[in-house]
From TrEMBL:
The keyword Signal applies. Transmembrane segments: none annotated. Belongs to the bacterial solute-binding protein 3 family. Residues 87-317 form the Solute-binding protein family 3/N-terminal domain. Residues 1-29 are annotated as: Disordered. The keyword Signal applies. It is found in: Cell envelope. It comes from uncultured Nocardioides sp. This is Solute-binding protein family 3/N-terminal domain-containing protein. Its main location: other. One of its GO terms (cellular component) is cell envelope. Keywords: Signal.
């Protein structure tokens, strides 16, 4: 865990201050998101040892419930080498409901898993998901270790300089608090002086950094915990080691309102002060895959499969029309 106790005075506005001494996250803390903390820690340990942060190869995904027909025009856009391989290699950072998580049998499930399967079906391919750490995704896809990544990935101008980002969803940031909201959080300004946890490299990490840089908290600094995964952040909130978790509304709303294991444990606080972020599929710039994936997404939108996937997870409003590429400014 990286601990940041930051105010604007601690660093220049454009800088990002991190501690070089990771702290223990604590043992024996359960995670009610369906991803045991010990499992998350083990995966992240492997990520630190494997090239490019790859945590686990060949993760088993549940049999896809989604079914759609091949789009021959989209399939014809595949690079020859990819088409001959027959399988798309996809990276995902597990533990971010409803995008990607594990069911009671340990299988990968979620919106991104269904969408990845649907894209593969449109292209006449299969898809193999590998678990990776969230902050390793850009480098792993850029280096060609994966064909693409579906993992609730936040689009940004900086990231699209390195990889192609194909937008498919939109979400504001939300604040997850213990049920009953004991600290009385009504918006992001109420986070000043509190302990706040986020997933490393996520839109929440960037968003809270920007809020700290704004100086709005003054001397009442946010005690900022940047954790390896979303499951770690939620576990910290459940155990009382943090006062709030900031994440995309899609994720926070699912945890607070839909997940049977957690909906009686947490509340969601929304604040329009957080700007909407675009969620994107990550594809290598030199892979030749971008055009084919865009065509597959548009085909899924046309036949209704795309919206059905979002409806299935109770996040219908997060779906976007079209498939814009590298639109961040």
């Amino acid at each position: 865990m990286i601990r940041r106790n930051l105010t604007t005075a601690d660093r220049p506005a454009a800088a990002r201050q991190t501690s070089s001494r990771p702290r223990s996250r604590g043992a024996g803390v359960s995670n009610r998101l369906g991803v045991p903390l010990a499992l998350a820690a083990a995966a992240l340990s492997l990520a630190a040892c494997a090239p490019g942060g790859d945590a686990r190869s060949g993760t088993q995904a549940a049999d896809p419930e989604v079914s759609t027909e091949v789009d021959e025009e989209a399939a014809a856009l595949l690079p020859e080498a990819v088409a001959e391989a027959g399988t798309l290699k996809a990276a995902t950072a597990v533990g971010y409901e409803p995008y990607e998580f594990k069911d009671d049998s340990g299988n990968l499930v979620g919106l991104d898993i269904d969408l990845g399967n649907a894209i593969a079906q449109k292209l006449g391919m299969e898809v193999q998901f590998d678990e990776v750490s969230y902050d390793s995704i850009t480098g792993a896809v850029k280096a060609g270790r994966y064909d693409l990544s579906l993992t609730g990935y936040t689009a940004s101008a900086e990231r699209q300089e390195q990889v192609d980002l194909i937008e498919y969803a939109s979400s504001q940031l939300g604040i997850l608090v213990p049920q009953g909201n004991p600290e009385g959080v009504e918006g992001r300004s109420d986070l000043c002086g509190l302990r706040v946890a986020v997933e490393k490299g996520s839109s929440a990490d960037l968003g809270i950094q920007e809020f700290i840089d704004s100086g709005e908290c003054g001397d009442d600094a946010i005690d900022f915990d940047v954790l390896p995964g979303q499951a770690d952040a939620v576990s910290a909130l459940e155990s009382g080691r943090t006062d709030a978790v900031v994440s995309q509304n899609v994720n926070a709303g699912y945890v607070a309102n839909t997940n049977e294991a957690t909906k009686d444990t947490f509340d969601l606080v929304s604040d329009d002060a957080f700007e909407a972020t675009q969620i994107a599929i990550v594809v290598g710039k030199d892979s030749g895959l971008t055009e084919a994936v865009v065509a597959a997404l548009e085909s899924l939108q046309e036949d209704g499969t795309f919206q059905e996937i979002f409806d299935k997870y109770g996040v219908s409003d997060a779906a976007v029309d079209g498939a814009a590429v590298n639109s961040s400014k």
